Amino acid sequence: MHFNWLHLAFIIAYFFIVLGVGLWISKLARNNLDEYLLGGKSNQMSFVGFSNASGMFDI
């Protein structure tokens, strides 16, 4: 497979998108850590249960 400029453009774009999302989330977490960690205490119990169950089936 030949590596060309389009592949490099996608890799660079992906890097900057992930970096931007990370900076945005860290800014939100910095403002109020309790709201970030607890999800604003607005999560439905079914979602919390599914999240916990998915962690138990880790391969």
The level of helicity is: over 70%
> Per DSSP, what share of the residues sits in E-state strands of 2 or more residues?
under 5%
Question: How many helix segments?
Answer: 3
The major β-sheet equals: none
* Count of beta strands: 0
- The stretches of 5 or more residues where confidence is low (pLDDT under 50) are none
Describe the protein's architecture and organization.
By secondary structure, the protein is an all-alpha fold. The protein has a domain at 32-59. It contains 3 helices and no strands. The chain has helices spanning 5-31, 33-38, 45-56. It starts with a helix and ends with a helix.
Indicate the topology:
Layout: H1 5-31, H2 33-38, H3 45-56
Identify the notable features of this structure and list them briefly:
3 helices, 59 residues, mainly alpha
Give a short summary of the structure.
76% of the residues lie in helices and 0% in strands. The chain is mainly alpha-helical and 59 residues long.
